[in-house]
Every structure is written in C-alpha cells, then in structure tokens.
Design brief:
Blueprint lengths: L1 H15 L8 H20 L7 H16 L3
Length: 70
C-alpha cells in the first residue's frame, strides 16, 4: 500500500534526523493508518460525543509525543 510506504518514509527520515526515537517504522505506520481509518467510524456513527477532528488531533498528538526524542 503506497500510503503505508509514505508514512514509513516520513518516520525513517525523522529517525535519521534524530527527531524520532528508533522504532519499528512498519508497525508505527500501520498504527497511524489505523488511527486515520478510525475516522470512518465517526462518519458512519455520528452518535458519538467525540468529534472526528478531536479524535484525529488527540490520536496524532499521542503518536507524535511517543515518537519524539526528549
């Protein structure tokens, strides 16, 4: 899947440039893609009090914070 590959390239670049910790880029790329796919559920089931925008922001913030070097 091309999108998964692009996520991996971004992650590898971040690791190379010492912005991100050493991680398994394949697994993290799948996690990012899975989080984004979760938005589809919010579009299908609008009953949730959580907005898609808030879901994206929170999920991506968590991922980025977990990847960053300290």
């Amino acid at each position: 899947m091309k999108l998964l590959y692009l996520f991996e390239l971004i992650l590898r670049k971040g690791i190379r440039e010492k912005e991100f910790k050493e991680v398994n880029t394949e697994i993290v790329a799948m996690s990012i893609l899975s989080s984004l796919q979760g938005i589809n559920w919010f579009c299908l089931y609008e009953d949730s009090e959580v907005t898609a925008e808030n879901y994206i922001k929170t999920s991506m913030d968590l991922l980025i914070k977990s990847l960053k070097r300290r």
